[in-house]
Amino acid sequence: MSDMPQSVTSARDGEVYVVIVNNPPVNALSWHVRQGLSDKFAEALADDSVKAIVLRCDGATFIAGADITEFGKAPQGPDFNAVLNSIEQATKPVVAAIHGTALGGGLETALVCHYRVAVPSAKLGVPEVKLGLLPGAGGTQRLPRIVGVEMAAEMVSGGEPLSAKKAAEVGLVDRLAGEDSLAADAIAFAREAIAMGPRPTRDRPVTGDVAVIEKLKSANARKWKGFDAPYANLACVEAATRLPFDEGLKFERTEFTKLMSGSQSAAQRYMFFAERQAAKIDGLPKDVQLRGISKVGVIGAGTMGGGITMNFLQKGIPVTIIEMVQENLDRGVGVIRKNYEASAAKGRFKPEQVEAMMGLLTPSLSLEDLADCDLIIEAVYENMDVKKELFGKLDAIAKPGAILASNTSYLDVNEIASATKRPADVLGMHFFSPANVMKLLEVVRGDATAPDVLATAMAIGKKIGKVAVVAGVCHGFIGNRMLSQRQIPANALLMEGALPDQIDQVHLDFGMPMGPFQMSDLAGLDIGWHRDPSRIETLRDAFCAAGRFGQKNGKGFYDYDERRNRTVSAEANAIIEDFRSKSNLAKREVTTQEIIERTIYPMVNEGAKILEEGKAQRASDIDVVWIYGYGWPVYRGGPMFWAGLEGLGKIVASLDAQGIEVSPLLRAKAEKGESF
Ligand code: 3HC
Predict the structure, then answer these.
(1) What is the pTM for the complete model shown?
(2) Cα–Cα 20 to 30 A to 91, which of 77, 291, 294, 301?
(3) What are phi and psi for residue 363, nearest 5 degrees?
(4) What pLDDT score does 645 carry?
(5) Counting atoms of ligand 1 from 1, which one is nearest the CA of 279?
(6) For 418-434, what is each residue's pLDDT tens digit?
(7) What is the structure's pLDDT at 527?
């Protein structure tokens, strides 16, 4: 293989042979790395002057896993399991030297080494479950032989890595190296290991109590609902407790193959890349310089403004928060403190961290206090006149170069920008409620938004832990624009004979965290209501006239108890029935399939229109919006990915039958047999 990249090299230090992997950016186990490992270990084993072997990596990290881009393609190079087995069975002691992240197949490589040395900052884990997979190169069989069943079960099913310090406590790391002396420390350890000899993991007994597996399943029942991978991971660890090693490996292989060929893992792997792709902005000059953001202003201390503020305080960025009256300001600041204290009580922050974060917050009643802010985010009442007036004032107050952002969820960002003399500095930063929790940030690019303003907003989004997606200006941007295409037919279905609970249940079974009517109740049915109980033109008017405003007053499409648990409401259903009969609409049976076709297919159609109009950069960005903003189940990969599984032809046929105007892009793709 003369065209093989030199991604694995070797060096000698006396009797120690050092294998070095160098495959940027994350030293993934591409075919040529597997080939290189196989060749170099064979060379080290054949050389009698070699007494011990060290495996280490150049670059930012130890091996971060299998090369995900190779999944689903024709296999090339040596089989990974075969390479690992030959390392484990080496007749000379093998030491892994770990820095950065030893993840997935990377940790599995370290597990077949006889000893592990790591720098204190390293992290070790098996995140395959997050890709809908399991560690398929012996990880589920070897981990319980090193860290015991309890820790192994937790690691494979949760996917969170251990710090090197924790790994040393549980026996996964044999020695912590100096942060800057890993290569030398590992060689020194290898010299000591010559006397200890090889220690194949497969020969070690499985320790610990298998009862932990059932406990994990019940503790995570809600979180894992609908997912296959956590359960498959646990089944493999359970198998390790009762099967001989080689049979355990076979069991693991069968489970791995099932997951790998299924749609859940395909969706989750797609999302891994979709999320990273979303950060890339089309058409941006390469040399764009970011603007510095060291102080933020937030206007509005309500639920949204408060949540937005928390994101920045948590990252150590000072925030000036503005309200119009003292009482509301005090209430907003109080809620922020209460939220932090509740998190501290759960152990997420130390009490002194709460004080430090609150110390970064400056409450004020005066817009003038925003004069020194680098980024100002407006989160006030959703009304164009109010927003334009505010941006006009901000234009006079904000320092030159400050970024002015609106958290509007529907309104025209270009019109808002037109209220200023600096539309290039204006954009939308649309957070999702609760804004300190939800990971999505839609960054809305106005016609005049400057490239550096857009890039800075995307970067600050990443800094505060959000997944930021670029959206164009249109009513509701990406997420809410598609959401309304779900709500309109859901409401129509009520008039044809379905009940809220029936429609919501279809969405819950699909894997959404809540259905359309649960969401309406959460948002409030009285938003935009004309407040005249005698004027009943829509079903919503009928609900408001009956004093059913949603969760906020304990009754909407459902009844709620004081803990906000919902039950089907006879009164609500009677209002629906009454409204329908007065409208002279016939009642009929509505099926699950019809609910899916009527409420989900139009979302796909709207997504295609959004793409066609260039309001989203790519289909996968739309999927990122739905997964991180609305809790679309990641194992279904977002609406555009899911549409491909469902079949675009089937979707187009149904939309045609429903009399819905089909997006030309969607139709063309369906005709060509393509997906998004
Ligand atoms: N395969 C292929 N490409 C990968 C990769 C992998 N395993 N991991 C990361 N990359 C790519 C990313 O797509 C990205 O590419 P881009 O620059 O073109 O967008 C680039 O490497 C850098 O990645 P990040 O932007 O994520 O860099 P960070 O520094 O933020 O994070 C990381 C680094 C923690 C290693 C993170 O990339 C990560 O979590 N990677 C995935 C790890 C993983 O899931 N490993 C298990 C793989 S499955 C497996 O091993 C199966 C086995 O059991 C048989």
Answers:
(1) 0.93
(2) 77
(3) -80, 145
(4) 96
(5) 19
(6) 999 999 999 999 999 99
(7) 84
Domain 498-503+512-582 class, CATH top level:
mainly alpha
27 falls in which pLDDT band (50, 70, 90)?
Answer: very high
Indicate if ligand 1 lies below 6 Å from the C-beta of 131.
yes
Catalytic: which of 128, 442, 597, 646? 128
- Residue 150 among the catalytic residues: no
Residues of the chain with CATH 1.10.1040.10: 498-503+512-582
Local structure of 146: helix, strand or coil: helix
**481: pLDDT confidence band, cut at 50, 70 and 90?**
very high
Q: Is 534 helix (H, G, I), strand (E, B) or coil?
A: coil
* Burial class of residue 438 (count of CB atoms within 10 Å of its CB; 0-12, 13-18, 19+): middle
Pocket test for ligand 1, best of 26, 98, 108 (most atoms within 8 A of CB): 26
Tokens of 655: 């939309």
Q: For helices 592-599 and 648-658, give the axis angle rounded to 10 degrees.
A: 90
Q: Boundaries of CATH 3.40.50.720 in the chain?
A: 296-468
Which part of the chain is CATH 1.10.1040.50?
592-672
Tell me, in angstroms, the distance from the centre of ligand 1 to residue 269's CA.
Answer: 11
Q: List, for residues 104-157, the tens digit of each pLDDT value.
A: 999 999 999 999 999 999 999 999 999 999 999 999 999 999 999 999 999 999
Burial class of 546 by CB neighbour count within 10 A (0 to 12, 13 to 18, 19+): middle
| Fold of the domain built from segment(s) 592-672 | N-(1-d-carboxylethyl)-l-norvaline Dehydrogenase; domain 2 (1.10.1040)
* Whether residue 135 has its Cβ less than 6 Å from ligand 1: yes
CB of 446 sitting under 6 A from ligand 1: no
Query: 383-439: per-residue pLDDT in tens?
Result: 999 999 999 999 999 999 999 999 999 999 999 999 999 999 999 999 999 999 999
Predicted confidence at residue 5, as pLDDT, reads: 81
**For 634-655, how does the pLDDT look when each residue is reduced to its tens digit (9 = 90+)?**
999 999 999 999 999 999 999 9
What ipTM describes this predicted complex?
0.96
Residues 6+ apart with CB under 8 A from 262: 132, 228
Give the pLDDT band (50/70/90) at residue 473. very high
- Residue 101, ligand 1, Cβ within 6 A: yes
Q: How far apart (Å, rounded) are the C-alpha atoms in residues 4 and 50? A: 26
> Which residue minimizes the CA distance to atom 9 of ligand 1?
26
Q: Does the annotation count 192 as an active-site position? A: no
Q: At what angle do helices 139-146 and 245-261 cross, to 10 degrees?
A: 130
**Arithmetic mean of pLDDT over the chain:** 97
Mutate to test the pocket of ligand 1, among 68, 111, 233, 260 (most ligand atoms within 8 A of CB): 68
Catalytic residue selected from 15, 43, 70, 108: 108
The size of the chain, in residues, is: 676
Regarding the beta carbon of 305 and ligand 1, being less than 6 Å apart is answered no
Q: Tell me if the domain spanning 296-468 has CATH number 3.30.2350.10.
A: no
Distance of CA 225 to the CA centre of its chain: 17
Pick the atom of ligand 1 nearest to 280's CA.
19
Q: Could you say which architecture CATH assigns to the domain 8-261?
A: Alpha-Beta Complex (3.90)
For 467-495, what is the mean pLDDT? 97
What pairing do the DSSP bridges indicate for beta strands 296-299 and 319-322? parallel
Is 161 a pocket residue for ligand 1 (Cβ < 6 Å)?
A: no
Given a cut of 70, is residue 2 above it in pLDDT?
no
